[in-house]
Design a protein that fits this description.
The protein is flat and about 180 Å long. The longest helix is centred in the last third of the chain and has 79 residues, at about 520-595. The strands form 4 sheets. Strands 19, 20, 21, 22, 23, 24, 25 and 26 form an 8-stranded mixed β-sheet that branches. Helix 1 runs parallel beside helix 2 and helix 2 runs antiparallel to helix 8. It has 20 helices and 26 strands. It starts with a helix and ends with a helix.
Length: about 850
């Protein structure tokens, strides 16, 4: 039952279904693509052929209609020429009537002829049924008369009378003011060009005027006089600059293939159309043939896929069944497949793999038995080690721990003697502290062994055990004489070390020479770790016990000091309250200094904040001040031609150089405005030499910025530095709002300093005459021409500062004590 289910699942979901579906899908895909491409090519060819054929017919019909109308025009023109020729012989209406009658008899399409004299009056009207002479109907404003006089020949738009399409052809007579002949044409002759013989059995045709009204049509075409302007193909022709469409709809809304051609002289269009269903009937038949071919291919593909899949089913099923048995452990099973292809090769590989697995499994059982015995032995050793560790760790007395360690080591190793050495870090020496199998009291070099020249030191330095299989063949060392004399021939040295340092060494001696097994060495290494832990615990317990006694002694001292600490705690609380008050006061002071440092030098801000009544210094008041304005020449053009990042770098260097000098001379920085800077002196702190400070600072600024301009010039920037200085009275105080306050000066002195700065050229300092008078003993100046400044009614006397006679460093050192005294003077 399980095999049947597997077979059904294989047929539905396995390779059988995949192969059948893949083959069927491939065949269907190829046939479908081929059919689609063939159908598309046939459709395009059929449509193009039909459209081209109808276009040729429409073009021929339009040409014939145009030739027929031209022939009518020629015959009407013949009548007018004949009448003009005979006018000289006999100027009577009788002769004209005879000519008109002859034309009516010869040309059935002409219904009526009218003669209009040069004044626009009808003189003669002749039809097959009626005649009117000298009716004098006024045609002077009729377009047929006026346009014909101007153009010689006109074609009037088509019109309908009793459902008959008509049009007028007007021809002017030769000579001055000779008149016009108007012929009424019956357009039913156009149907002769659209008969079934010319159009075809499945095609219909019709002629429309510029408004989209049908003038003539074939038997299957639209009715004469019907407005078809709403049809898409007709609307496209009537649109300005429109082009004919290849498809459209007929009056009943059915899709049609269409072709059109114009009659340029009349503005008409000839349309040939064929229903799309009839035109594409061969394509429909071709689609039916393709569908039948696909169905046949589908049946063949299903049959072929089923046969091929079934041929693959039997060997694959055998492979699957064999793989399951191999997975279940039946390595004796062999897969029997004879297909002479890759499946047979795969079955052979499965059989080879089964043989190899059978051999491997039998060898693995032997190895497992060996490993089981080794594991049992290791488990026994671990049990002994665990018992040893528990016994070693059970005692906290170092004198009891060491004999236990030696006894358990002798038990584990089945050796003949065990020595335990303690390590003296101060002397870098190993001392024998415990022994089993050798008399501890025996004299010899083995009682104290130096670290540097012994195998004990080598093992401790490496942190690994050192085994000597045969002492008689080994190099001389301190243990050799004693061990050999006592009958021992092999030794194992295990260091007792941890992260904190060396505790000692464990020496195992055997009477028989021979190698120590790796398992025994590893076991002793683990035992050494546990022994170190026990020794550390014993030492720690000893230290803790000693510290406990010391703590008991110190407890009484602590109780005595507790009372004193309580008193000190009360004092600290009082000090804390005082400290909090002082911190609050200092924080308020720091906040005031921070607000002042926005526009004052740090030392000036600290002086104002620490002085009594400092808030009054910033109140509004009037005082004489020195105002310094400075900016960079050519900075505006520089910012327009360079990148914003480079402009910001130049401003940072410029402001850094100015800011250092402003704070050094204790000026008040009023504002920054791009490259423009305004500095006040003598406000809010007064200085006797405020003008001198301002000019001296300006000279140093010019020198500092001069070095910067050279640096900028090397980077391709052409910039200069100009300064203007003025002295006068201004109103000083804080402006702004609570969150943003600034210290500012208002007065004409600031405007004067700004205008002088504008007049300064690159690397020039321009000061007012009054400023120069204050610093004349120290400054070298050159008078300038009177300056006419914006906002000042009179010319301003100005001086250029050329240099300073004093050395800046000496002046700054001499001025510091005086400045300190001036700061302390109340304002």
């Amino acid at each position: 039952m399980s095999g049947v289910r597997d077979r059904i699942q294989f047929l539905r979901e396995g390779l059988f279904a995949k192969y059948v579906v893949s083959l069927v899908g491939l065949v269907v895909f190829v046939l479908a693509v081929n059919g689609a491409m063939e159908t598309w090519i046939s459709y395009r060819g059929t449509k193009t052929t039909l459209t081209d054929g109808m276009s040729e017919k429409a073009e021929a019909t339009a040409r014939r209609i145009e030739q027929s109308v031209a022939e009518l025009e020629r015959q009407i023109s013949w009548v007018t020429r004949a009448s003009a020729t005979k006018q000289y012989e006999r100027d009577t209406l009788e002769q004209r009537r005879n000519d008109y009658a002859q034309l009516l008899n010869q040309v059935p399409a002409v219904n009526q002829l009218s003669f209009i004299n040069g004044s626009g009056r009808e003189q003669l009207r002749l039809s097959r049924l009626t005649i009117a002479v000298n009716s004098n109907i006024d045609f002077s404003r009729d377009l047929r008369f006026t346009e014909t006089v101007a153009r010689s020949v006109t074609y009037a738009p088509a019109y309908f009378r009793d459902a008959r399409p008509l049009m007028s052809i007007a021809v002017s007579h030769s000579g001055f003011n000779a008149g016009v002949t108007i012929a009424e044409i019956d357009l039913r002759f156009l149907s002769d060009f659209l008969g079934d013989a010319q159009v075809g059995k499945s095609t219909f045709a019709y002629v429309i005027d510029p408004k989209g009204v049908v003038l003539a049509g074939s038997a299957k075409g639209p009715d004469v006089g019907k407005d078809v302007s709403n049809l898409p193909q007709v609307a496209a022709l009537m649109a300005p600059g429109g082009a004919p469409l290849a498809s459209g709809t007929d009056t009943s809304g059915q899709s049609v293939l269409t072709a059109a051609n114009a009659v340029p002289k009349l503005g008409w269009f000839v349309l040939f159309e064929q229903p799309t269903a009839q035109a594409l009937a061969p394509i429909r038949d071709q689609l039916v043939r393709i569908a039948l071919l696909i169905a046949l291919g589908l049946a063949v593909a299903i049959a072929a896929g089923t046969v091929l899949a079934r041929r693959m089913l039997i060997p694959i099923t055998a492979l699957r069944r064999g793989a399951r048995k191999l997975g279940a452990g039946d390595f004796s099973h062999r897969i029997d497949v004879h297909t002479r292809d890759e499946l047979e090769e795969l079955a052979d590989q499965f059989n080879s793999m089964a043989g190899q697995l059978q051999e491997t499994y039998s060898g693995l059982e032997t190895k497992v038995e060996e490993r089981t015995r080794d594991l049992a032995r290791s488990i026994n050793e671990l049990k002994v080690l665990e018992e040893v560790g528990r016994a070693v760790a059970s005692s906290l007395d170092l004198n009891a721990v060491l004999p236990t360690v030696a006894a358990r080591a002798l038990e584990i190793t089945h050796a003949d003697a065990v020595l335990i050495y303690g390590y003296d870090a101060a002397k870098q020496q190993f001392n024998l502290t415990e022994s089993i199998g050798i008399d501890k009291a025996a004299e010899g070099n083995h009682l104290a062994i130096d670290q540097g020249t012994s195998v004990l030191g080598q093992a401790a330095e490496k942190g690994e055990p050192i085994a000597i299989p045969d002492l008689s063949d080994a190099a001389d060392h301190l243990l050799q004489d004693v061990a050999v004399a006592a009958g021992f021939h092999s030794v194992l040295v295990v260091p007792l070390v941890d992260q904190k340092g060396i505790l000692g060494s464990l020496v195992v001696l055997r009477q028989n020479a021979g190698e120590f097994s790796p398992n025994l060495i590893g076991l002793m290494k683990t035992f050494a770790h546990q022994s170190v832990l026990a020794m550390r615990n014993a030492r720690l317990f000893t230290e803790v016990d000693h510290k406990g006694r010391e703590l008991a002694t110190a407890h009484s001292t602590v109780q005595q000091q507790a009372a004193k600490l309580q008193e000190q705690t009360d004092e600290l609380k009082h000090w804390n309250r005082s400290l909090e008050e002082r911190v609050e006061k200092q924080l308020a002071e720091i906040e005031r200094i921070r607000r002042l440092e926005r526009f004052l030098a740090p030392q000036v801000a600290q002086l104002i904040a620490s002085s009594d009544g400092h808030d009054s210094l910033l109140d509004s008041h009037r005082r004489e001040v020195t105002v310094v304005f400075c900016d960079l020449r050519g900075f505006t053009a520089f910012t327009e031609t360079t990148e914003p990042e480079e402009a910001m770098n130049v401003l940072r260097e410029y402001h850094a150089a100015l800011g250092e000098l402003i704070f050094r001379y204790e000026g008040t920085l009023d504002r920054y405005a791009g490259d423009g800077v305004m500095i006040l002196f003598n406000a809010p702190i007064q200085f006797d030499d405020h003008t001198k400070r301002a000019v001296k600072m300006a000279v140093e600024m010019r020198d500092s910025i001069g070095a910067l301009t050279q640096k900028w010039r090397n980077r391709g920037h052409s910039l200069g530095f100009g300064v203007g200085i003025a002295l006068g009275y201004a109103t000083l105080g804080q402006i702004g709002f609570e969150q943003r306050l600034e210290y500012a000066a208002i007065g004409s002195v600031t405007n004067l300093a700004s205008r002088l700065c504008d007049e300064a050229r690159a690397n020039q300092i321009v000061v007012s005459q009054r400023v120069f008078g204050m610093v004349e003993p120290w400054a070298e100046g050159r008078p300038l021409d009177d300056l006419t400044l914006k906002g000042f009614n009179h010319p301003v006397l100005a001086v250029e500062i050329l240099g300073w006679r004093e050395e800046g460093v000496a002046r700054a050192e001499d001025a510091a004590p005086k400045a300190e005294r001036r700061r302390k003077r109340p304002v």
